[in-house]
Amino acid sequence: MSESSERALQGPARLPDYLSSTYTWAYLNPRTMPWLDRAPVVSAILWGNAGRLMRWAVSRFEPGQNVLQAACVYGDFSNMLARRVGGEGRLVVADVAPIQIANARRKLAGLPQAELRVADLVEPIREQFDAVCCFFLLHEVPENARRRIVANLLSAVKPGGRAVFVDYHRPRRWHPLAPVMAQVFRWLEPYAPSLLDVPIESLADEASHFDWRKETRFGGLYQLVEANRRN
Ligand SMILES: C[S@@+](CC[C@H](N)C(=O)[O-])C[C@H]1O[C@@H](n2cnc3c(N)ncnc32)[C@H](O)[C@@H]1O
């Protein structure tokens, strides 16, 4: 990585207010983090779908690619992605929280293709990648930050490259977990409802340069979105 590109993905001065006010318990507290960062916990939070969703996302990338992962993810996801791009590839994991980057660095030790960066993805990225991956970040940020993150991630994709988003989506009306998820969002994920019905491709003008494909899983509760930038 060149010096200028390192600067482009280097440390924000402070944490975003939405993160410290809403998610300290989940991402910034050194006492809770080791409990949450366990595969069974991640699996339970995603109703047993974590492995399937992670495998789908990882399968959208190729060995040898230079990939940006937008924000750290609990469990083995970054490890899976780093192994997927392999020794000939490169995985840059960028997160605004230094404690999350330190934790991910520990998990990715022994995988030299993985690089960790403290960076606020609301700010322009100024480096281009073969592909970017955004796994369950968008529902955790307010709408204005979400738009800027999507625009920045799309701008960071090279011509012919790909952006992959996996996140919550409005479950179908009959979904037995719909009322439970509505409560979870009310208590713990206040920004999630504003994502559920809004196509990710509608969030940024940059989206018009991409071909979009969306699937949903688990009764519509999760969306898997792939956007391929035209050459
Ligand atoms: C990817 S999301 C949640 C993923 C999923 N719930 C999990 O961990 O399994 C959580 C991460 O997003 C990071 N984050 C939130 N806003 C960000 C921003 N503007 N720029 C970079 N990282 C951000 C947080 O610091 C946190 O580590």
Explain what this protein looks like in three dimensions.
The longest helix is centred in the middle third of the chain and has 13 residues, at 143-155. Helix 5 (50-59) runs parallel beside helix 6 (77-85). It contains ten helices and seven strands. Helix 8 (143-155) links the parallel strand 4 and strand 5 (157-168). The two termini are 24 Å apart. Helix content is 37%, strand content 22%. It has a single domain, classed as Vaccinia Virus protein VP39 (Rossmann fold, 3-Layer(aba) Sandwich), CATH 3.40.50. Strands 3-2-1-4-5-7-6 form a seven-stranded mixed β-sheet. The chain has 231 residues and is α/β, with parallel strands linked by helices. S-adenosylmethionine (SAM) binds at residues 16, 19, 27, 42, 71-74, 95-97, 100, 120-122, 136-137, 140-141, 145.
Q: Under the CATH scheme, which architecture would be assigned? A: 3-Layer(aba) Sandwich
Low-confidence stretches: 1-8
Count of distinct strands: 7
By secondary-structure content and strand pairing, the structural class works out as alpha/beta
Strand content: 15-25%
The CATH topology turns out to be Rossmann fold
**CATH top level assignment:** Alpha Beta
Largest sheet: 7 strands, mixed
Radius of gyration, in Å, reads: 17 Å
- The H-level CATH homologous superfamily, spelled out, is Vaccinia Virus protein VP39
**Major β-sheet strand ordering:** 3-2-1-4-5-7-6
* H/E series: HHHHHEHEHEEHEHHEE
Shape category: globular
Tell me, rounded to a whole number, the average pLDDT: 94
Q: What is the count of helical runs?
A: 10
